[in-house]
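User: Predict the full complex structure for these chains.
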Amino acid sequence: MRGNAEAHELIAPGTLPAVLDLLASAPGEWTPIAGGTELMVAFAAGRLGARKLVNLWGIPDLRFIEVTTENIAIGACTTFVDLRAHSVLAAELPLIAKSASWIGSVANQSRATVGGNLVNGSPAADSSPALLVYDAEVELVSRRGRRRISYAEFHTGYKRNVLAADELLYAVHLPRRFAHHRQYLRKVGTRRAMAVSKVALAATALLDGELIGEIRLAAASLAPFPTRLYKTESALLGQPIAKETTEAGRRALLAEAQPIDDIRSTAEYRRRVAANLLQEFLLELSTEGPSR
Amino acid sequence: MNAAWAAIHFTINGKACAVQAPPMKRLLDVLREDLRLTGTKEGCGEGECGSCSVRMNGELVNSCLVPVLQAEGADVQTVEGFATNGILHPIQQAFLDCGGAQCGICTPGMLVATAQLLARNPHPNLAEIREGLAGNLCRCTGFMRIFESVLAAATRAPESEAKKASHAR
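Assistant: Here is the predicted structure of the two-chain assembly.
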């Protein structure tokens, strides 16, 4: 059945304080909508459950990239076109622009927002693995105040997160301390353009001589939500770049990953490809010499 | 429940317009039904095929994914804004000359996406053209003639012309 526009309310309070007032006045009743690349698809198909929507698109307080000495703050309604065009992000945190370039087409990237990608919480979310290996934090805001938590603790289950009924995702914060890390991100999908990932792996690492001195790994589509792979990291941390280490990393990842069979791929394929991606990253570490 | 209709004002191909519509009505449907601008086509209705591409405030968007309330105050450009006084826009002429259009359903979206690409990058290479049009599907041409059309349009149109035609910011 097609969506019926008259069955859904959509209002535009126009400012962030006005949106927060609305959410506080009726917690859980209003669903925020930004670029609409998820919700309007559901709407068109007649399966949008939300009857009351509040517009965030066009609120300037939510669309910004602010660079300070130690941090880059990205407003929740910043689009992936915005992220791809930002020179500091490109220079220091290139995985952000790389993942943004995979999000659908130009037309999708000019509307889809980083906040929407995270709040929607797809296990396959394109921006998530990169944000996780950069130690991103998310700032949540409501009439009650602001709080800031690690993005790794934002998702709590399949399409579930820590947002309270009156809260909005306000910004993503990225520390500026990864410019010299070795960085890796690869998505495997059905085709290069417009494909949802079957699996994606991101990594940042620092070498300490011959040893892996620091490592972060994160994946899409290996769990009910985008996740850090802490156990696999532990298996690699402090180890030398060697065949045995790669084998141990592969084993740890195969044990830690919990992929499922679905319309896009199988659990078995995801597991094997994820292990191969990890191996590719470790090979890059070994062949490109010490961290720049 | 019947949501209250809203009065929405925006600019369409340089002209101010006002419509009364449910705020969740898709910009695509407002263009086609309320404004009778049927050049913009509906293909998939879910942001995958690009047939409904229009430019909104200088950015390429799928009009099937824009609730019309979000077009309030916007500058919207559709394929109807391309030709002037019966003279085809250079991008349209290039598609015609190079066989870039066959059945025509994807063509308006292809033209709009091309205008967006050339506004940002007046002389794209083949890889950049492929990326710029990755969200626009064609089932007739096999794409090669479309890419050739874009190359031809980029070669012919002076930079200023491409920018002017596409309302670059």
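The mean pLDDT of chain A is 94.
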